Amino acid sequence: MLPVLLVTVDNTVLGFALPKIAEALNPSASQQLWMIDAYSLVLAGLLVSMGSLGDRIGHRKLLLVGSLGFVMMSVLTAYSVTAMQLIAGRACMGIFGAMLMPSTLALIRAVFKDREERRLAVAIWATTLTVGSALGPLVGGVLLQFFSWGAIFLLAVPVLVPLLILGPLLLPESERDSSGPLDLISILQSMVALSALVYGIKHSASNGADSTALTAFIVGVVAGRMFVLRQCRLPVPLMDLSLFRSSIFSGSVVINLMSLAFLVGFVFFATQYLQIVLQMSPLSASLALVPGQVMAIAVGVAIVPVARRVQVHVLVPMLMAFAGAAFLLIASMGSSLIIMVVAFALLNIGVGSIATVSNDVILSAAPPAKAGAASAISETAYEVGVVLGTTVLGGLVTAYYRGALQLPVFLSEAQATLASETLSGAHNVASDLSGGQARELMMQAASAFEGGIGLASWVTFGLALMAILIAWRALRTTSPRLAVDA
Questions:
Q1: What pLDDT does residue 371 have?
Q2: What average pLDDT does the chain have?
Q3: pTM of the entire structure?
Q4: How far apart are CA 219 and CA 443, in angstroms?
Q5: Cβ-count burial of 232 within 10 angstroms (0-12 exposed, 13-18 middle, 19+ buried)?
Q6: Residue 485's pLDDT band (cuts 50, 70, 90)
Q7: Cα–Cα distance list, 477 to 249, 306, 315, 484 (Å)
């Protein structure tokens, strides 16, 4: 659970540190998004490959190598002096992070042979996954209250060093798939397909659907098609596409992706809103989100007995309705502190439970020797969801902010450019102005940012309704209980 907690905390803690990083490194709006996305982009591109590599060489070995590399790159990233150094460090952390996630879920399959024990273990794993994302703001708030922004990366040292010491003693090696070597062409195709598609989405959210975005989408689709065709021809494919013939498996992957996108997108704009617009300290802002984190912990395990009694195609839409209600609340009633706290709690009730149910379905559908590949599919959906949350929802907020911001006439051209890029940029400009001018600028910036939150919330509410329909249709099973009971 240690690497699961760290990797998922890392996905959201950086969003909380963005205001301080913006002050120290002066990144552009695009660089701010890349600071968050570089990690998830590389991670998503490599998860399938690393899952299959772990199936062949052993997941304990891959987990330990990934942990060592992650610690080293985290320390280097903590001392970045430019925005580009931080982005590069995040990308390298993504390489080693891709070794960690599939290994953890695959080792659960190796350790727990009993079906009921494994279900509880998966529930704890999924709860850790969700709690890690939810704890990011709290961890970030505490660290940023007392230390510089680099402390959020140094967190990897106390978390992963115990794993490096105790892992060889406590963890068994997983069952290996010796059916054939990794296909390097398939690895390249999967990386190009995932990275190009995610980049196209990110670029569209930030700059509109221009020729660059269109080119990225075309490259991603072509590479993805080549990957699929190659997997169908290979005797030992990198990804077992036959898993997707099950609508329950496919539907669980899609719901997993969408639910994490909702959670991370919320954290992306809520952390900035609490700190900059409401002028809360990092610690106070993080404490405001504690009720949601408590809900994530409680429902992640509590959903297990419920899942034994309620059909999955009924249960998941009910849980997704909580996520939809969270964004409907913000869209219809605004983004006050109380609304944000309640919405985050509702969101975690839905996402925390969905993570448990969907990952249990995904893991149970695969044979033991393919546990790493199935785990990689699940976590690829998770990381793509993280990227979509920051790029699509975060991009919507940013695009609205830029279009709606009414800049005061007293700003210089350089100040106007910086203030119009991001809310953090406006805050930095305001810190150099007199009291009255600073208040006027921040009033305009806050109004524009709140409007962007409202737009993103309406869009997300619509996506939640779509997810409910997908779950209702795709997750149907003839079993009276959760499909994986069989």
A1: 61
A2: 81
A3: 0.74
A4: 42
A5: exposed
A6: very low
A7: 11, 16, 12, 10
